[in-house]
Amino acid sequence: MNVAKQWTVVIDIDEHDGRTRAVARLDAHGAEDLVGTGLARCNPADRDVPEIGDELAAARALSDLGHRLLDAAAGDIEQIVRRPVHLDR
Which range among 16-20, 45-49, 58-62, 66-70 shows the weakest confidence by mean pLDDT? Predict the structure, then answer.
């Protein structure tokens, strides 16, 4: 059975007071939607390059989202096998 699925991740990025925040939202089309967040800030001694803050915050949000997705999968498996499971990160 071949079934193609498409999940969408939308990343919203905003900046306030030298801090960049990214929120990554997974739309799994019917499955539970998950959200990951990431933060970045510019070291006062460094030159301010907004693109770097965006990249760091987005990467951290995606990493957080990935961990939440693994936790959700582990919870689903636990419901089936009726015992605790641990999925490597």
Answer: 45-49
